[in-house]
Amino acid sequence: MSSLDDTGLTKASVAHRWLVAFAVVGLIVCVAALFGILTRPVGFLAAFWPANAVLLGLMVRKPEFATPAGWIGGFCGYMAADLVTGGEIFITFWLTAANLTGAITGVLLFRVMEEDDRQLRRPQAVLFMFAICVIAAAASALVGGGAARVLFDRDFFTGLEFWFTTELVNSLLILPPILAFPDLGGPTPRRSFLKLVRRANFWTVGPLAAVVASALGEMAVGGPGAIGFALPALLWCALTYSVFATAVISLLFCSALLMGVSAGLVVVPMAGDLLSSMSSFRLGVAIISLGPLTVASVDAARNELVTKLSHLVNHDVLTGVMSRGAFLARGNQLVAQCRASGRPVCALMMDIDHFKSVNDRFGHSTGDRVIAHFASTVSEQLGEGALLGRLGGEEFSALLPDATIAEAVAIAERARKAVAAAFQSDGLGVLPDISASFGVSDGGGQADLAHMLAAADNSLYVAKSDGRNRVVAGTANATLPAPKRRRHRT
């Protein structure tokens, strides 16, 4: 294929990506804007306008859409939604410019944040998001606030206040679920929900039920304090559910509360100017949602740290397999489970032949790479459900649940051949032929893990004594004499 053909394909690919960005962004913005227009009170700007927050979240989570084509698509989406509902071309252009100003400002500010902060994975990310929402709302309000004079004969500062408050409230409620939406590579919200349903109990369902009960209490009691009735329940949600789930629950609850007040279902006294009082109330509701979101982020960061520390404690740093202590603890549990259910279980002991000579001739750095490569190769051959641990140096052990002695020997033989083949084309440099010896032991009826490992270790010693690079099987009930261990069994 010529370079001209390659250039043509590249241009076609770029054009296709831009067309997709234009169509997707334009359609999403148009639908969100039409929804906002439906909530527009007679004689004033829309009270609920999700389009700007949706556009901002989309551009942050999908940077490939933040192209000139994507922004043009957003512009067309705003214009189309307003024009088909009877808007005037000049006013529509003005309002669209204000909407895009806020979204572009937010995207530029989010770009200076790290990826974990953009997806609300760290506690300070909520504070950063709040600051960006304030700045973006202010930028949008400065451009669009003057439209209140033309449209509704209200002064600039009234339009500025309403635009800023509405923009900030919408961003604080709508943006967090978009930013915290799980990556496609991880568990989907549907899978997480189904997993939660299967594990349903008081502690998993209780927080959500408490939010519903709090909402009913707000309707029944009303008054200025009703705005805070659900805060303890939302904090409970933050300690129980993920950041994304907490953000969705906060969005649904706060939206329901705002609509309840507008519909008169929740009675909250308003003092002075009704418009200013409603703006203050709506802003207070949105800011309250930041509390549970912050708690959820802190809890998620703590859980991630505990998971990392647990992995470091329970896994060997060099090879990634289980550490000696973790292997023995998990192994005892596995053997006990197999014994209780009458299932077979076998143990393997293995180490690398002549490993000391590898260290002596090529250095410990190469030796470490050999050990890591060996562990990776063996792990691939053991199958699902097996445990593999590094007991020390070049010595490893494995447990094979639901495997008979014959099946365990076959698995060990397959691993032995895989090790020999792996080091012939491993890219580690000039090395002698690397091989491994394996000792196999079955459960021997009722033998515990210690006896199984001792029997497998005896079989490994026999394999070493018989010439290495082989598999020898024994049983935990066999009365093999204890071998006289050499200082370096290589």
Automatic annotation (TrEMBL):
SMART domains per the UniProt record, alphabetical: GGDEF (SM00267)
Keyword terms of this UniProt record: Membrane, Transmembrane, Transmembrane helix
EC numbers on record: 2.7.7.65
Domain GGDEF: 343-476
Residues spanning the membrane: 15-35, 42-60, 89-113, 125-150, 162-181, 202-220, 226-244, 251-271, 283-301
Coiled-coil region: none
GO MF annotation terms: diguanylate cyclase activity
Keyword Repeat in annotation: no
Reaction catalyzed: 2 GTP = 3',3'-c-di-GMP + 2 diphosphate
NCBIfam families: GGDEF
Protein name (record): diguanylate cyclase
Annotated organism of origin: Mesorhizobium australicum
